[in-house]
């Protein structure tokens, strides 16, 4: 995965990074695309790739889709409850090479509830002043603590993290 990456701890640059979410209505009629802002995080590239780690936080209140009403609903008390839980967090628990590439496992904290998540690393490359990673996965929103809206939105939410991180001083 990262034989070309320089070992070290890198700080995620929120201004250059993105989190994209895709879900469907229960009946699959219309996909819903949204974004959330990254607050920050770190990526530690180890000499032994399997010892590498990552952590990141998202601004829960930054949920944006093409519908302002949906945005208010998702950030409101019934879904993300951003007033009481302003941050969504992730911390890795392992990195393993599988038949299809590298898989990062970790714990996702949403609304004070922890759930396991696995992300597939699609890109891991040097970038100007640091590293660039793209990781994708599917989160079961009910398992992640967002059980409301079962009749409105399907359980799986596809997540794509496009992360740029620079060397920590």
TrEMBL record:
<dbReference type="InterPro" id="IPR007372">
    <property type="entry name" value="Lipid/polyisoprenoid-bd_YceI"/>
</dbReference>
<dbReference type="InterPro" id="IPR036761">
    <property type="entry name" value="TTHA0802/YceI-like_sf"/>
</dbReference>
<protein>
    <recommendedName>
        <fullName>Lipid/polyisoprenoid-binding YceI-like domain-containing protein</fullName>
    </recommendedName>
</protein>
<dbReference type="Pfam" id="PF04264">
    <property type="entry name" value="YceI"/>
</dbReference>
<feature type="domain" description="Lipid/polyisoprenoid-binding YceI-like">
    <location>
        <begin position="9"/>
        <end position="166"/>
    </location>
</feature>
<comment type="similarity">
    <text>Belongs to the UPF0312 family.</text>
</comment>
């Amino acid at each position: 995965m990262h034989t070309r990456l320089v070992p070290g701890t890198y700080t995620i640059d929120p201004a250059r990074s993105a989190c994209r979410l895709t879900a469907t209505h229960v009946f699959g009629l219309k996909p819903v695309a949204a974004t959330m802002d990254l607050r920050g995080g770190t990526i530690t590239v180890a000499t032994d790739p399997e010892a590498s780690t990552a952590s990141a936080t998202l601004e829960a209140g930054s949920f944006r889709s093409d519908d302002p009403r949906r945005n208010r609903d998702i950030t409101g008390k019934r879904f993300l409850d951003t007033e009481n839980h302003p941050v969504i967090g992730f911390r890795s628990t392992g990195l393993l090479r599988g038949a299809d590439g590298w898989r990062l496992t970790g714990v996702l904290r949403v609304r004070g509830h922890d759930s396991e998540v696995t992300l597939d690393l699609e890109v891991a490359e040097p970038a100007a002043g640091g590293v660039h990673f793209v990781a994708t996965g599917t989160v079961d929103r009910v398992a992640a603590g967002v059980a409301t809206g079962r009749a409105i939105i399907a359980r799986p939410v596809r997540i794509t993290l496009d992360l740029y991180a620079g060397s920590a001083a």
